Amino acid sequence: MVSLSRAAVLLATVVFAATALEAQDRGGAERAYFRAVASFFQVPRAEIAILSNWELPPDEIPVVLFMARRAGVSAEALVALRKSGRSWTDLAERYRIEARALHVPLPDRASAGMLAQVYERFRETPVAEWSTIRLGGADIVALVNVRVLAQSLGMRPEEIMQRTGSTATFVELYAQLIR
Fold first, then answer.
1. Is 6 helix (H, G, I), strand (E, B) or coil?
2. What angle do CA 126, 129, 134 make, to 5 degrees?
3. Alpha-carbon distance 92 to 143, whole Å?
4. Per-residue burial over 121-154, b = 16 or more CB atoms within 10 Å of its CB, e = otherwise
5. How far is the C-alpha of 113 from the C-alpha of 116, rounded, in Å?
6. What is the pTM of this model?
7. How many alpha carbons lie under 13 Å from residue 148 in its C-beta half-sphere?
8. How many other β-carbons are positioned within 10 Å of the β-carbon of residue 119?
9. What gap in Å lies between CA 53 and CA 45, rounded to an integer?
């Protein structure tokens, strides 16, 4: 019969191994996601590695690159402002990145997943007035990531949007989609 202490050690070993495998899998998914982001923005992977060292959530790195390119400012400036407490909404307003620039075209009846309310506002507002649509930070992160994932994977944006909300992060969504 196995003693209670041996069973505890065996259980701890199994849990440790499972946790290590999960972390390794997450690391691989993140590296694959970062490769896709680097390719999409046509930047060296080293630039993505630098941005990831600044302790931003991985899902926000494409937003940094998108806004930096649109605004004509350095990624470092945006990261500094973000880390000082500025929201993506504030930064989009500061650099005049309007909802029109973030909009990802969808067929009329397509599901927008977690972006359904945002797309309802797009549909209700004449295109000429889209500059009045104020997007939340999570909406900005999602719209940029949908664009990046759709183009990187050669998928229709509505396919990506339908899956938003099925995972906690876009890194996890990317990992699901490439399986």
1. helix
2. 115
3. 13
4. ebeeeeeeebeebebebebbbbbbbbbbbbebee
5. 6
6. 0.84
7. 29
8. 18
9. 12
Alpha carbon 128 to its chain's center: 28
DSSP letters of 34-58? HHHHHHHHT--HHHHHHHHHTT--G
Find tokens 């899998």 and name the residue.
25
**Residue 61 near residue 48 (C-beta atoms within 8 A):** yes
Chain centroid offset of residue 40 CA: 13
> At which residue do the structure tokens 């007035």 appear?
129
State mean pLDDT over 22-34.
Answer: 75
8-state DSSP, 109: T
- Most distant CA pair in the chain: distance in Å? 76
8 A C-beta contact, residue 161 and residue 171: no
Q: Retrieve residue 20's tokens.
A: 């290590």
Joined tokens for residue 97: 């990145």
For the segment 75-102, what is each residue's pLDDT rounded down to a tens digit?
999 999 999 999 999 999 999 999 999 9
